[in-house]
Amino acid sequence: MKTRLYYIIAMASSLLIAFSSCQKEDYEVFDKSVATRTSEYTAKIKDVLTGAENGWLFYYFPEKAASSMMTLAFSDTTVSVSSERNPSLTETSFYRVTFADGASILFDTYNSILHADATPSHSAYQGHGGDFDFRVISVCPDSVILQGVRNKTVCRMYPLKETSQSYLEKVRSNIDEIFVVQATGKVGGGDVIVNLDPDKRIFSIGRLGAMTSEFTNVHYIINEKGIQLEHPLEYNGEVFYDIRFDSEKNKLIAGNIVFDPVVPEGFLPYASYLGKYTMTTEKGSFPVELKQKEKGLSYYLGGLNPNYSVEVQYKKASGSLEIVYQELGVYENVKYLMCPFDSDSGYYTWTAGIGLAGSVEDTSVDDFSISFVDNGIWANYNVTSFLIRRVDPETDKPTNDKVDPAMYFASGSDRLLRPAMKKIVE
């Protein structure tokens, strides 16, 4: 046993000597120390980042959220970020170029634009698949390729050739203009159908008549020319990457391939919903109005109460509306919530995303009617209505305490029971 122990110690000593020798020989290959080479490489990255006169386009593909076009402008220590959501808004925060298991760009101070999809919330405790720490895959003055440390999403950066705001306004214009959600065409001699989900930014392509499970999917982003896929996609011998929308001909064009849009049943463009309505509930009828909040994405629903407006979401994939759980604001130092309510069972919830989906019964008439049904997210319950609840400041949860009448709906109570809307034509 002792002999074996001496043998193991002798072998370990030999390996240590050999390893030390190898380390020395590898070190002598370079004329600079590791610390010097690392410092020079991180300095090169920072020079490239700060060297773009107008900043960078940031093609961002969060794992669980829709892609987003951003612009980043770097100084030695700060980054100024803007987004397609609001081209005129810029937020500045700090960043660092670090080196551990390779070079990384770390956006380590909070930026509400850049960190939106990486920030945990009540309904998404890990965020929406966004990153704030990116490994540098490659770097040069013409492009920077990054990969998120946590979610492994590959992002691309290209130098801007114009100001951030002017570029993002072009993107914003395309977002509003490209309302195609389905189109047909021929690829490789076969009839195919293309689906564009503008809410999740997913491009799908498959054989006409095929089941959804047979389709090939990839995320896309909207740029100044149209849409660009997260990566090149080969289908029936053709490769898709950049796809242009011809607004005059109302067609999607990918190289020599032309797709003709198909309008889904019940689809209405965003602008068609703007205007005045009569809302009917079990408690009576009253006038309301849908006004633009974020163009192409959401509305203000006014007329329910002068102290607040309710947000209504526009679902571009279906051309329909959705009203979900939301905070109404603070009145007399008390926070109020609008909670989805199953009026049949008497249960309510305050979970994000749960609510009512609105659909138009007849899109061919100007004075169309909108009916609302459960949006299918609250398992085992059926949302029919909404009710207002005040929040306990200690627990930050809704209570059944009496609601101040000043916060009542126009129906005269804290309940909006089985709402429906009819457009008023003036």
What would the keywords be for this entry?
Lipocalin, eight-stranded antiparallel β-barrel, disordered N terminus, 46% strand, 426 residues, 31 strands, 3 helices, mainly beta
Q: Can you describe this structure?
A:
The protein has 426 residues and is mainly beta. It has three domains: 35-166, Lipocalin (Beta Barrel); 178-261, Lipocalin; 270-423, no CATH class. It has three helices and 31 strands. It has helices spanning 2-27, 34-51, 164-177; strands spanning 56-60, 68-74, 78-83, 86-94, 96-100, 102-106, 133-140, 143-148, 154-159, 182-187, 190-197, 202-207, 216-222, 226-235, 238-246, 251-254, 257-261, 275-281, 284-292, 298-305, 308-315, 320-324, 326-331, 334-342, 347-348, 355-360, 369-374, 385-392, 397-398, 415-417, 420-423. The chain has a nine-stranded antiparallel sheet. β28 (385-392) and β29 form a beta hairpin. The longest helix is centred in the first third of the chain and has 26 residues, at 2-27. It is globular and about 80 Å long.
Number of strands: 31
Spatial extent as radius of gyration: 28 Å
- End-to-end separation in angstroms reads 100 Å
Q: Helix amount, in percent?
A: 10-25%
Overall pLDDT score: 86
| Morphology call | globular
Poorly predicted segments: 1-28
Give the oligomer, counting copies of the same chain as homo and different chains as hetero: single chain
How many helix segments? 3
